[in-house]
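Appendix B, example 12.
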Amino acid sequence: MPTVLEVKDLVTRFYTPEGVVHAVNGVSFNLDEGETLAIVGESGSGKSVTMLTLMKLIPQPPGKVERGEAIFLGKDLLKLSNEEIRHVRGAQMAMIFQDPMTSLNPVLTIGRQMMEPMLLHLSMTKAQAKERAIELLKMVGIPSAEGRLDDYPHQFSGGMRQRVMIAMALACTPQVLIADEPTTALDVTIQAQIVELVKRLRQELGMAIIWITHDLGIVAGIAQRVMVMYAGFIVERAAVKELYASPQHPYTRGLLGSLPRVDESADTRLVSIEGLPPDMLRPPTGCPFAVRCPYAFEQCAENPPLLPLAPGHEAACWWDIDQGKPRYDR
């Protein structure tokens, strides 16, 4: 599969009155055409900041991209001017945000907000843009689509607003769709509908998707590959089945252990990860997970790189949990 996006050694900092926040610390990954990559981690792990950096949506200042490359269709996104990135955002790369109520303009009709990117990027007439907007609302399952173009965001339910956001993101048929926790504010049945909708649209339109979430339960049904982030680092990366079958980083094991499972008895206790994530104003010098890790030993004073364990499976951990011994002795 051809690669549509290649990110190399991305580092993002925020210079605040309290000090420097080390939000993203040398993240590298690639996204292939038509695949879904899930990025998983708890709040503050750097998932959203990584994507906002690529889209040039972090406020500068206080944010600053210290180094890195993001090659998208032959261009480095981080080197594009504000005018150039506007023609990429919405047209070739689109983003669905976590809370549709704060992402949609409350004083503009849904129709006007949907038509704007088509008028800007596709040079459509108003009549063509209106027709396409109706078609998109139908595609994402909004009933009586034609009559809803003149409605305002507050006239839609949470699930319907999220569908509108997806329709807006798809308006210009982007090659990459970034979904930033798009189901967090929704109840479980609506979550399932949104996940099914995105899967169907990916198959129909052939776009690549980056799905950001803290919920590993959703990932199994939607992604081909998973990237686990912690404290601004990638700590594990693997194909989704491989990661669930054989997680190799203690943090990934903790996340999976905290999920209720259908195949376990009712009295099986869920695992909790002790402690708190590190303060990124004062990031640790060694492995960022070491203070919370039951397997930590002296080598963890040095931060491990992503170590290749199997084809397509890497983990940033010095300790082999399965073998009960350090990896570097091999």
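The two ends are 33 Å apart (CA to CA). The chain has eleven helices and 14 strands.
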